[in-house]
Amino acid sequence: MLLDITPTGKEIKRSAFLEKSSKARNFFGGSLLLCIVAICFGNYFRKTDKPQGSEVEQFVAMIISPGEQSVSQGTAFLLAKYDGTSSGYLLTARHVIDNNRMNGTVTLLFPKLLNEKGEPIITTASIKWKTDIPFDSSNSGSFTFDVALLKLDDLSTLPDSITGFTITNDMELKQPIAIFGFPQAEAFYTQGVVSNTEYEGNTNLMVMSFQFDRGISGAPVYNEESGDALGIAIAGNGKLANIALKITRVIDLIERDNLKILE
Asked: Which of 32, 94, 218, 239 could bond to 75 as cystine, CB 3.0-4.6 Å?
C-alpha cells in the first residue's frame, strides 16, 4: 500500500512560515552583526578636538625593537603641553630604551592612528633624555628613576588633532584608573583603582589594583574620564607586576634638568 505523503494545506503554510522565519533570523543576525561592526568601527575612527576616555589610546605607541624579526619592546605615550597643544614628546620607561640598538632613535607604531591607506602610522623618535640611574628589579629605589623622554623626529607624521595626555597632580586612594599598552606586541587594556599611593614607603611610586605583563612597561596609567596621565607602568615582571612611577615625579626629574617640555 502506498502512503499518502502529499502535504496538507496546514503543512504547506507551516513550511512557508518556517522558511520566512529562518530568513528573518538570518537577516536579523546579519543586520545585528553589521550594526556591531559599524559601532566598533565608529568608535575606532571617531575623533574629537579633545579626545577623552578610550580615545586617548590614540596617544599610545608601541616601541618596536630593531632587527629582522621586529617585535614590541615596550610602550610610549604622547604628552600635551600645559595649554593642551601637542608637545611632540613621549614618555616611556628607561629600561625599555636601554635595550635599544638604533643609535638613539626608536621606531614607533601607533595602532589606533591610521594613515590614508587605513594602516597604522609608523614613525620615529629620538631619545632626548633619560635618568642616570638604571633600573634594578632588586632595588625599589631605582624605580623612581625609571623614565626616559623621546621626541618625534617629524611631528607632521601624526594628524593635527593628536595632542597627548595632560598632566595632573590629582591622585587619591581608590581612584578609578586605566592602562593601555602592548605586552607581547598585543594591545592590552584594563581598568582598576589606585590601591596604594606609595610603595614600600616611597611616595613617588603608586600601586595599582590590576596586574600587567612584561612589555607594557612605559605605558600610561591614566584617568579615563579626563585623559590625565597619573603614572608610567615600570614593573610588570615577577612579583612587581602592578607598580607605576607617578607622573609628578617624572615631570620633576625632567624639569630638574632644565627641560621645559610642557610650556
From this structure: 218
